Amino acid sequence: MSIPEKGNAVSSSKKKVGFSQGLKKISSYCAYQERCLMEVQNKLEEWGLTSSDTDKIIGKLLENDFLNEGRFVESYVRGKFGLKKWGKVRIRQELKMREISDDLIRDALEAIDEREYQETLKFLADRKWKLTREPDLYKKKAKVTRFLAFRGFEPDLIRNTVDELAST
């Protein structure tokens, strides 16, 4: 079997899901954890539902409050900041990739307590500073800065925090 034939064999063996079964499965999927509209659409598409069935199912999910983007964004921001210690820049990027509206993102990020945000940044910076075994101060600052930037904190906050650590 050639490669194109093999690819066709895989896609044709994929099990198609009907409307009622799709609604039941996707309701469970949404009940397990908050989901955004894009995740639900992708899952329904993966199951091979038609676009009209997908629209009807999404309508029912919205009607029954299984799907609520505002609730999803609040939950996502709480989890990523509270548990993973991500900064606002990274959280915003991840939500934009999920096609969430700017208004919902802005409102959810504003809900993060600024004092707690600063404390988290300082905690992460201090921990990374202590764990970084680099004798060259410039390289050490660069490593800590890159770490905090990857976590998604704002460049000006990172610079101030790292400069503060370097001066002590």
CATH class of the largest domain: Mainly Alpha
Order of helices and strands: HHHHHHHHHH
- Beta content comes to under 5%
User: Span from first to last CA?
Assistant: 67 Å
Mean pLDDT: 91
Computed over alpha carbons, the radius of gyration is 22 Å
Return residue spans where pLDDT drops below 50 for at least 5 consecutive residues: 1-13
Query: What is the structural class?
Result: mainly alpha
Count of helices? 10
The main β sheet shows up as:
none
Q: Within the CATH hierarchy, at the fold level, what is the topology of the largest domain? A: Arc Repressor Mutant, subunit A
Please estimate the helix content.
Answer: over 70%
Whole-number total of structural domains: 3
Strand runs, count: 0
CATH architecture of the largest domain, please?
Orthogonal Bundle
Note the main attributes of this structure.
mainly alpha; 75% helix; disordered N terminus; Arc Repressor Mutant, subunit A; 168 residues; single chain
Task: Lay out the secondary structure.
Blueprint: H1 3-12, H2 19-32, H3 37-46, H4 51-63, H5 69-82, H6 88-97, H7 102-110, H8 114-131, H9 137-151, H10 155-167
Helix pairs in contact: 2-4, 5-7, 6-7, 8-9, 8-10, 9-10
Give an overview in words.
- The chain is mostly helical.
- It has three domains: 3-63, Arc Repressor Mutant, subunit A, CATH 1.10.10; 69-110; 114-167.
- The protein is 75% helix and 0% strand.
- The protein is built from ten helices and no strands.
- It has helices spanning 3-12, 19-32, 37-46, 51-63, 69-82, 88-97, 102-110, 114-131, 137-151, 155-167.
- Helix 5 (69-82) packs across helix 7 (102-110), helix 8 (114-131) crosses helix 10 (155-167) and helix 9 runs antiparallel to helix 10 (155-167).
- It is elongated.
- The protein starts with a helix and ends with a helix.
- Belongs to the RecX family.
- Residues 68-109 form the RecX second three-helical domain.
- It comes from Cyclobacterium jeungdonense.
- Residues 116-159 form the RecX third three-helical domain.
- This is Regulatory protein RecX.
